[in-house]
Amino acid sequence: MAASRKGSDGRTQSSLTDPVDWARHFWRRQDLGDHEEAFIAMSSLLRLHRIMVDGVEAELRPLKLNLTDYMLLMTLQLSETGTRLISQLARSLMVHATTATLATDRLETRGLIARSPHPTDRRATLVSITGDGRKLVASATDALRDTEFGLANSTIDDQHRLTDVLARLRLAAGDSDTPLKATSTR
Fold it and tell me: Hey, what domains does the chain have and what are their CATH numbers?
């Protein structure tokens, strides 16, 4: 039978069912020193990420899409012309060019996107969303809307604050793309 000891937060060890609380408890218990909050924030963010990805992919699965495929289609949908270079897609999605190419292969096989040679650069390939791709990404977006894109039960204020905090943290971490400061769109 496990002993129940009180931690520095007043909770007993056996009551630490949340993995982030558990990590904080043992960080302190092992006296790991500085940067506890950064470690806990990282752990919490990674846990939220996993929960979001699992929830989003569960909604996309019936449509035979994964998160990368959906984001690639949405990137094309959101672009002015519906067309981007494969290299631009990889950069936007923060995936390796090979991953973008494999996703492009999958989506092209299904008739959701079409490839064409770049008119002036023989090394580059353009990818365009098709009418079927637009219909599917609209259906997928509707399904994800119902789950608040993995942020179920959050408020618009929570979403704005999260986006603002993450934008600052992205910049501080050296994100090569500078996010716009939230303006009067609220």
Answer: 13-63 (no CATH), 66-150 (1.10.10.10)
